[in-house]
UniProtKB/TrEMBL annotation:
<keyword id="KW-0472">Membrane</keyword>
<feature type="transmembrane region" description="Helical">
    <location>
        <begin position="12"/>
        <end position="35"/>
    </location>
</feature>
<keyword id="KW-0808">Transferase</keyword>
<dbReference type="GO" id="GO:0019706">
    <property type="term" value="F:protein-cysteine S-palmitoyltransferase activity"/>
</dbReference>
<keyword id="KW-1133">Transmembrane helix</keyword>
<dbReference type="InterPro" id="IPR001594">
    <property type="entry name" value="Palmitoyltrfase_DHHC"/>
</dbReference>
<comment type="similarity">
    <text>Belongs to the DHHC palmitoyltransferase family.</text>
</comment>
<feature type="transmembrane region" description="Helical">
    <location>
        <begin position="41"/>
        <end position="60"/>
    </location>
</feature>
<protein>
    <recommendedName>
        <fullName>S-acyltransferase</fullName>
        <ecNumber>2.3.1.225</ecNumber>
    </recommendedName>
</protein>
<feature type="domain" description="Palmitoyltransferase DHHC">
    <location>
        <begin position="94"/>
        <end position="147"/>
    </location>
</feature>
<keyword id="KW-0812">Transmembrane</keyword>
<dbReference type="Pfam" id="PF01529">
    <property type="entry name" value="DHHC"/>
</dbReference>
<keyword id="KW-0012">Acyltransferase</keyword>
<dbReference type="InterPro" id="IPR039859">
    <property type="entry name" value="PFA4/ZDH16/20/ERF2-like"/>
</dbReference>
<dbReference type="GO" id="GO:0016020">
    <property type="term" value="C:membrane"/>
</dbReference>
């Protein structure tokens, strides 16, 4: 239970509240008036609800799934060292060492100063999920962003359709 409390900072709570606000605002102001008029209204409500649930599921996975940290006292496999460790920046096949963790680290692992640990395949530390985006949660983060993008474009087209229908009724 302590891990859940640690992840739930003000930003994460604000994102959950924003999701709820946007969902209910869109449903009651945009989709609900359309429901009584046609079957497309019901289909749009179903699609918007499904996208919201999928986006929330992906967001929850981003927040609570660890990004993937380097195990303590990690040592590379010496036999495969020449195949697996090709560090082009340094021009050699040199092991990388994190001075803060005092541990070896594999390629593409970076130390996050916010989480205070080395993260595998670290992309960035995201304040909106209060977590690093890395090896274990990158897919969820990407799906969350794509789902939000789809919801936004879907919503834009819905509002345009309703504005067009409203303009036709008033002319």
């Amino acid at each position: 239970m302590q891990g859940v409390v640690d992840k739930m900072n003000a930003t994460v709570v604000a994102v959950f509240l924003f999701f709820g606000f946007v969902y209910f605002t869109i449903v009651f102001l945009v989709v609900y008036p359309w429901l009584e008029n046609s079957v497309p209204g019901v289909l749009n409500l179903t699609l918007f609800t499904a996208l919201t649930i999928f986006a929330l599921k992906s967001y929850i996975a981003c927040v609570f799934r660890p990004a993937g940290s380097v195990p303590e006292n990690w040592e590379p496999d010496v036999e495969n060292l020449s195949q697996n460790f090709e560090v082009k920046r340094k021009g050699g096949q040199q092991l990388r060492y994190c001075k803060k963790c005092k541990n070896n680290k594999p390629p593409r692992a970076h130390h996050c100063r916010v989480c205070n640990r080395c993260v595998l395949r670290m992309d960035h530390h995201c304040v909106w999920i209060n977590n690093c985006v890395g090896h274990n949660n990158y897919r969820s983060f990407f799906l969350f962003l794509m789902c939000c993008r789809k919801k936004r474009s879907r919503l834009s087209s819905q509002v345009e359709c309703q504005d067009g229908a409203s303009a036709q009724r008033h002319t």
